[in-house]
Amino acid sequence: MGQANMIRCVLRDDPTHINNHDVWPVPAATGLETAVDALRTLAVRHEGLRTTFPHAPGTVPREQVVAAEGSFTVTVLDHPELPPEPARYAESVARAARAGRFRLDREFPLRITLLTVRGAPAYAALASSHAVTDGSALAVLREEWLALLAGEELLAPAALTPLGLAAEETAPGGQRKSEASLRYWERILRTGPQAMFAEPRAAAPPGRQPQLTLRSRRGALALAAAVERTRSPAATVLLAAWCALIAHRAGQDVCVTAVPTSNRFTPRLARSVNTLSQDALLSLDVRLPSFDALLRKTWGAALNAYRHSQFDSVRLWEMIDRVTGERGSRFARDVVFNDVSALPATLMADAPRQAGSGEEELSWGPDQALPTRVLAFTYRTAPRLHISLWADPALFDRAEAEGFLTGLVLLLEAVASRDVPLASLTEVTGVRPAGRGGDWLRVDGCWVSPRAVRDALSRALGGLPAHVEADRPDGGEAAGDASPGLTAFIARGDDPVTPAGAHAALMDVSADRTGVLAPSRYVIVEDPPAGSDRGGAWRRLRVLEEGAGRSRQV
Questions:
Q1: Strand ordering across the sheet containing 374-380
Q2: Residue in 215, 214, 213, 239 with CA at minimum distance from that of residue 226
Q3: What angle do CA 139, 26, 84 make, to 5 degrees?
Q4: Contact 472, 478 (CB under 8 A)
Q5: Of 198, 393, 505, 530, which is most buried with the most CB atoms under 10 A?
């Protein structure tokens, strides 16, 4: 299922976005033949590296084949001397190798370049196909590579092979697990916020995001003290702090975040050289008085998310399209939190570090195109807290991104010694909630701008006059959080628009439009009110037709 999920992305997305890369150091005095032999051993050892996905042109692969023999290419790039900052140079070579789509039907899933100095290997820079490996699989390979170069003998692999995992997933028990996961996701998609960052500054779709890395001794000491005080695992404390601060910054009552490493926490898959990339979708209600109360809820919520992270990705996206069409929103995978610190092998890129050894070290790295607003990787929690953050510049300028990570450290320091009221997060962390004008209100669990909905609806209908307002259950003023939905009035004139046609047109243009949630009711009138755009004037017009506009009434 992880393969099927990533193959959809490999066939659709920009290769520089979906392919992975890593840099493996080569110990001094390692010969070229020794390095190549170690790579050969990895290919023989792991079925995943010998897996291809045959399919006819224009179709999606439906089977995997494991080769019993074959060959692969290692490119040797020799230098009289490596450039200054050799680790940064090796990183650039590995990133460049991500360009170009992998041929799933026949290409070896690793593009390997050995960087040598007068024939002596110094680094292995590689890109990998996400259909075969994920970041944790690359970390396992790196660990085994270094062990082989050190002359160690590797134990036989204990993890499930890709074929073994596929057999489990297609068995009746695996199918029941997938069905349960789809039901779990649907509950969140029908009730949670459509986007964590629904606010004016998020109007543009996500683009290139710079990498910000925190290495903080203070953060590690604070996390350890918080673990001691609360008697909770470090991963749970860190996840609770992350969710509290994300929800606070986004101005949301619920934190919805993807947690992609969940499947790695089962013993038989922890060291699997395979792509297990399927999200656990965590939904955590933060309407609680204090951090400790939130922490008590986080463990159960995370376990529930992890239990429901194995699913048929094609059916998942069919369900997402159906549910969001009925609800009138577009699911935004705004927040991703990837804590790989507890895994047996972690992906530790040889990114250059800032000079100095201060207690809290922040450094900026290269940009990357990402389809999410905020992505975080936690690599280590000791002896320094090591987190990399990619935050959308449309939401976080550089000072705000740095303030968010340092605010996370401040929160950990506070909860290390006491139970922190969640109402005091601005004071404790320096992170301020999103600012929204008076037009914004919460409808159906989502932050919505009726003005933005009106403008999007009018554009979708070729400029027809429209008016959108919050439903008024008591006939009075809009009820804020109590409002069950929006009502749209459309003056169609001679246009034959219907509620169903209006809803379909709005959904066609609503992708990546922040603050747009489809009205729960469309009211068709003939002409707009004369000289007034006030809701009362629209409500007094003769109704030609009205309805929810959905195939399923909501």
A1: 280-285, 254-259, 335-339, 374-380, 385-391, 208-216, 360-369
A2: 239
A3: 105
A4: yes
A5: 198
Residues with pLDDT less than 70, the chain: 261-263, 343-359, 472-484, 511-513, 532-535, 551-554
Long-range residue pairs from 286-290, CB within 8 A, at least 24 positions apart, any chain: 286/243, 286/244, 286/247, 286/248, 286/252, 286/253, 286/254, 286/255, 286/422, 287/253, 288/422, 289/421, 289/422, 289/423, 290/419, 290/420, 290/421, 290/422
260 touches 20 (CB < 8 A): no
Q: State both tokens at 103.
A: 């041929």
Sign of CA dihedral 389, 145, 341, 371: positive
The Cα–Cα gap between 103 and 323 comes to 34
For 262, the token pair is 């969940």
Classify strands 20-25 and 120-128 as parallel, antiparallel or unpaired: antiparallel
173-216 pLDDT, tens per residue?
Answer: 999 999 999 999 999 999 999 899 988 877 777 778 999 999 99
Distance CA 257, CA 278 (A): 13
Q: Does residue 394 contact residue 202 with C-beta atoms inside 8 Å?
A: yes
For position 477, what pLDDT does the model report?
41
Model pLDDT, residue 274: 93
Bond into 383 cis (ω within 30): yes
In this prediction, residue 474 carries a pLDDT of: 44
Here the tokens at position 329 are 């929103």
Beta carbons within 8 Å of 273's beta carbon, 6+ residues apart: 46, 48, 49, 133, 137, 140, 141, 157, 159
Question: DSSP 3-state assignment of 67?
Answer: coil
Strand order from edge to edge, sheet including 545-547: 466-470, 486-491, 521-525, 545-547
d(CA 355, CA 208): 26
Phi, psi for residue 174 in degrees, rounded to 5: -65, -40
Q: Are 167 and 281 in contact (CB under 8 A)?
A: no
The Cα 496–Cα 56 span in angstroms is: 44
β-sheet with 110-117: strand ranges across? 20-25, 120-128, 110-117, 74-79
Q: Report the SS3 class of residue 134.
A: coil
Contact 407, 246 (CB under 8 A): no
CA distance 168 to 174: 6
Q: What is the pLDDT of residue 350?
A: 37
- Give the predicted TM-score (pTM) of the model: 0.85
Count of positions (residues) in the chain:
554
Q: Which pLDDT score, from 0 to 100, does residue 356 have? A: 42
Write 351-357 long-range contacts (CB < 8 A, 24+): 351/87, 351/88, 351/91, 351/213, 352/85, 352/87, 352/88, 353/215
Nearest to 549 by CA among 451, 460, 422, 432: 460
Burial 101-134 (b: 16+ CB within 10 A, else e): ebebeebbbbbbbbbbeeeebbbbbbbbbbbbbb
- Per DSSP bridges, beta strands 280-285 and 110-117 are unpaired
Calculate ∠ Cα 192-188-511, nearest 5°. 65
Contact 157, 165 (CB under 8 A): no
Structure tokens that stand for 293 in this block: 């109360």
